[in-house]
Amino acid sequence: MPDDTIAAIATARGRAALAVVRTSGPEAIDVVNRCFRGADLDEAESHTAHVGFVENAEGDDIDQVVATVFRAPNSATGENIVEVSCHGGDLAPKMVLQSLLDHGARMAEPGEFTERAFLNGKMDLAQAEAVADLIHATSTKAHEASLTHLKGRYSDLLEDLREELLNLCSLVELEIDFSDEDVEFADRERLENLLDETEEILGDLLDTYPTGEKLKDGVRVVIGGRPNAGKSTLLNALVGHDRAIVSETPGTTRDEIEAEAEIEGVLFRFVDTAGLRDTADEIEAEGVRRATESIEEADVLLYLYDLTVGLDSEEIDFLDDLSGDDSTVQPFLLGNKADAAPDHPVAELDGLSALKLSALHARDDADELQPLLDRLTDTVAEHLSRAEASPVVMNQRHRQHLQDALDAVRQAREALDMGVSGDMLTLDLRAALQELGAITGEITNEDVLDQIFSRFCIGK
Amino acid sequence: MHQDYFEYDVIVVGGGHSGSEAAAAAANMGADTLLITLKLNQIGQMSCNPAIGGIGKGHIAREIDAMGGLMGKVTDRAGLQFRMLNKSKGPAVWGPRAQCGRAEYADCMREELEATDNLSMRADMVTEVLTTDDGETVTGVRTNLGQTFRAPCVVLTTGTFSNGVIHVGEKNFGGGRMGENASHGITGCLHDLGFESGRLKTGTPPRVDGRSIDYSVMEKQPADPDATAFSFLTDDLPPVDRQLCCWLTDTTPEVHETLREGFDRSPMFTGRIQAKGPRYCPSIEDKIDRFSEKDAHQLFIEPEGYRVREVYVNGFSTSLPEEVQFRALRQVPGMEDAHMLRPGYAIEYDFFPPYQIQYSLETKSVDGLFFAGQINGTTGYEEAAAQGLMAGINAVQKLRKADPIVLKRSEAYIGVLIDDLVAKGTDEPYRMFTSRAEHRILLRQDNADLRLTELGYKLGLASQERYERMKEKERAIDVTRETLADTTVTPEQVDDYLRSVGTSTLNQPRPAIELCKRPEVDAEDLLRHAGIYDETVTEAPGMLSAPRLIEIDLKYEGYIDRQQDMVEEMEEKERWPIPDDFDYESLENISIEAREKLSKVEPDNLGQASRVPGVRASDISVLMVLLKNEGVEPLPKERDLDLDAMGGDGQSFGVSRETAVEVG
User: Fold this and answer.
1) Per the CB < 8 Å rule, is B592 touching A119?
2) In this structure, are A168 and A231 located in the same domain?
């Protein structure tokens, strides 16, 4: 156990009715007791709240507070914790914290409470990572998914998987190390089934990564089109404030401009790009090159064109390419400036969803934008329903380990088909276990033997 | 011959499997060695079942032999029946096993020791380990007869004799084996030196007069024509028809019922025995209790020798009252008239949790004092012998002022064994399993000599003859492999054979080596069938033909390569040394549990540190950064074995004296 006691303001800065200053460590109760007047916290039972005053180093009252005592190991970090609820605002929490520091606590490093919880076995690595994700969650849905991880559903799933693989491994090891015992061995069909199931679970879990990635990092929506199609105006309408400079001069946006907005609980990252055209201006040409790259990396492309000008043949070819089967971008065609061309219908292209709008009006009229917002949320509907149904993989590190585990399981399955012997088979099984172990905690040779001895009668 | 009766280089206490190897290794490496054991006629005694080897254990026995140890040679001489276990599994997990004559084994071991130069023996009980006044350096031992013997290195191999207590039902009494006294004094003396001890338990079944058994109702288990010898120096085994058989039978629900009647008088269940026994070698009462759904447990009848009729009832280990043992035994099919020569019993003994030893098996707190065998918490003859061998080697390395020899996990089962003991410790008697060796694909019993003989030779332990045989084998493998790669076979030569083993025929001539890779193909048969055996094969010494040796590497090439990659990845960490006085407590960035465990274990390098339970991958990353910051450099990949630098004290170490008692 760490021998020092840490403290930090646990609530966000800014105006609020209440704030919480938290302290954790072997001395947490003593530290608060030294500057708390109202009850003797030394005598306080775990999970009890006490009203009183916090004093500063000079002995003057700072604030009336509620101190809640949690005794080790029954606390969030596994150490003694006191949570001091004081009044909110800028001053009171800072002064309370200062007093705790003056009375023996040390300022906590970022993430240190979580780290202690992790070190004391209060959460596993996946949960600790979820706490970090939760703190950094930028949208409601990402928050919900992190919470699912934190509650351990994700860990439970991985734990089950690990258990299955450990089972498999111990069945095979049993055959090898105890073949001269009269223990019954797993038939190959059972091994095959177990491997198939494992492969399926891993595959399903990996399939959730695009969802996790979108929840965590947001959906990347690139706004593209010819110069002066109204792209920056649309961006400003979508994010609700003047993020991009709008002018009548074509080619005003030379570099990319990014802005975020949460729609229906999902984070969208909008990217305004330089208008696509052949240009002699070097800087603008670079902007066009970047725009093309951005479109390739986008989840969604909003392709804007001016209804009063129409689409040219180059644009039509470009959009045709994008709506092909092998394209990873989902394109939408937007006929802009409906205000100036109320009678022009939006162009119809094969396989391309099209919409007519006025970006200019949309800034002040929410209804004008609604059809577009609906289509945007539709693009992630599948992901959202998946995230509600099961835990999703949100972390790149996890994705890599799961992928490697899946590869190992597939290799084991092939080996089984080829009739490869058990000692070789376990090479793959152990590799898979090791990958999962990197997420949930390691598996040792002992774990395999423990499994064998607990389930089979060994020793004739 | 030795000059001073009371002065030696190395003193080995205990003459079991561990002590014998320790004494022989030290003496063969040139150290003046004294072996002190309670009874000289009990040297190399098999306390439990009369067999050497098996799965995992067979690997260790082969490794001991490859280094120049005794166990393989003695097993080949004392063997009654030889088999190769796990033949249906991959070659990495084949395990040689031999039933041995109990008396023959002990006799042969004593003979080997008596033929060893530089080795003296004494029948006595060591009661005290002597040290300098500060208790930090060993100086010798004192015996029950009051004599003092001095040496800078002392190897303790006390087995089950340290404060041994034998239990049969409600009776219990001091003893190291049935009919032999326990040894007392050493534990107390080690406590005074600051060592912690614990208690372990093991057990053994009743012995029965074979003439009173009806074998006609049992399943016969004959010798195996495919078996190979244990020693790489042995060329032939006794003909299969001259080897003895084992027999299999099963317990019945009635047997279980009778045994249950004695449970209230079992020292296991009444709590009289507190120490932990091995989970993989439970007593029959434990099996019935824990796996009550099974209504039969296999029993394995092992012969005790060519000249005696006594048999060992493996699987019936028990400490129930003798009368219960007897009634239950007589209900076993084939045992209705069994005459019990002596009852089974449980034995509790002292061990010293192995976090107290270094990887060299030298204790951390007393310079020059080594622990080997059951004293470190292991069980099994092979595990004990392996530690004895390494303790003997490292005692001499210490005298030579040379680096200790620590075998790697990727190099030998012996490396796995010692690493497990030191890094992880054990709270039950530790036995080897192949599943403990994560690199087992590389650690085959047939290539133990290729892995270890050169090292044994360079250390001055393995003999010239042994080394040359290994080199010859290596050459035979290389030459034959090249020849097979250069030799093409035609469809006419091999199609008949290929068809007969169920693999596809050829449509054009192919290199012979490619066909040997096919799982269905037996390389030897193929080459004979094609009529090119003699022209392509350069024979290897030992019991396996060159094609047999090669085909294993060929067939599992992909897996062997992958395993090799894993080893290299792992060994990256092994090469980062951790300074002896490293202060883990000051590391704030690693978990508290890891700090505590690492301080206790004191690993030599990062790889070892990573295997200490409770240490996480992230802790190792922190440690590595720290070592780099402190300017620590990774060690070279090869082990430093500069023999010229050894023997600085003017002693004539470095020439093998491995003796050649005729084998086979």
Assistant:
1) yes
2) no
Q: How far is A417 from chain B (nearest CA, A)?
A: 13
Least Cα separation, residue B367 to chain A (angstroms): 31
User: Looking at the 3D structure of chain A, how many domains does it have?
Assistant: 3
Q: What is the mean pLDDT of residues B268-289?
A: 88
Using one digit for the tens of pLDDT, what is the confidence trace for B178-194? 888 888 889 999 999 99
> What's the rounded Cα separation, in Å, for the pair B276 and B287?
15
Asked if A161 and A264 sit in the same domain, the reply is no
Asked casually if ipTM beats, i.e. exceeds, 0.95, the reply is no
Task: Give the residue from chain A lying closest to B88, CA to CA.
Answer: A421
Residues A174 and A242 in one domain: no
DSSP lists the bridge partners of residue B99 as B51, B81
pLDDT of residue B646: 46
Q: Which of A180, A427, A442 sits opposite B559 (nearest CB)?
A: A427
- pLDDT for A1 equals 46
Domain assignment present for residue A434? The answer is yes
CATH of domain B207-348: 2.40.30.260
pTM value surpassing 0.95: no
Among A384, A402, A433, residue at a domain's last position: A384
Judged by average pLDDT, the poorest of A122-131, B280-289, B462-471, B649-658 is B649-658
Residue A333 inside a domain? The answer is yes
- Which chain B residues are within 8 Å of A426, Cβ to Cβ? 435
- The class level of CATH for B477-555 reads mainly alpha
Do residues A317 and A449 share a domain?
no
Same domain as A367, residue A236: yes
pLDDT score of A269 more than 80: yes
Q: Classify residue B299 by its DSSP letter.
A: E
> Residue B82: pLDDT above 90?
yes
Q: Distance between terminal CA atoms of chain B?
A: 29
> Is some CB atom of chain B closer than 8 A to the CB atom of A173?
yes
Q: How many CB atoms lie within 10 A of CB A44?
A: 19
Q: How many CB pairs under 8 A join A and B?
A: 103
Is A373 within the bounds of a domain? yes
Mean pLDDT of chain B: 91
Q: Which fold has domain B576-629?
A: DNA polymerase; domain 1 (1.10.150)
Please indicate, yes or no, whether residues A111 and A12 belong to a single structural domain of this protein. yes
Nearest CA to B511 among B531, B529, B494, B525?
Answer: B494
Domain ranges of chain B: 207-348, 477-555, 576-629
What pLDDT is stored for residue B645 in this prediction? 45
Q: What CATH code is carried by the domain that includes residue A306?
A: 3.40.50.300
Contact criterion met (CB below 8 Å) for A107 and A101:
yes
**Contact list, A449 vs chain B (CB under 8 Å):** 433, 435-436
Do A318 and A271 share a structural domain? Answer: yes
Tell me if B475 sits within 8 A of B446, measured CB to CB: no
B63, B412 Cβ separation under 8 angstroms: yes
pLDDT tens, residue by residue, B113-161: 999 999 999 999 999 999 999 999 999 999 998 999 999 999 999 988 8
Domain membership flag for residue A110: yes
- Nearest CA among A429, A459, A397 for reference residue A125: A397
pLDDT at B439: 92
What is the longest distance spanned by two Cα atoms in chain B?
82
Question: What does each C-alpha distance from B121 to B7, B8, B110, B393 come to in angstroms?
Answer: 13, 12, 10, 19
Handedness of CA B545, B86, B454, B663 (dihedral sign): negative
Domain that holds residue A317: 214-384
The share of chain B scoring above pLDDT 70, in percent, equals: 96
Q: pLDDT tens-digit profile of A130-187? A: 666 655 556 666 667 666 665 667 778 888 888 888 888 888 888 888 887 766 666 7
At A404, which CATH number?
Answer: 1.20.120.430
Pick from A347, A312, A317: nearest CA to A332: A347
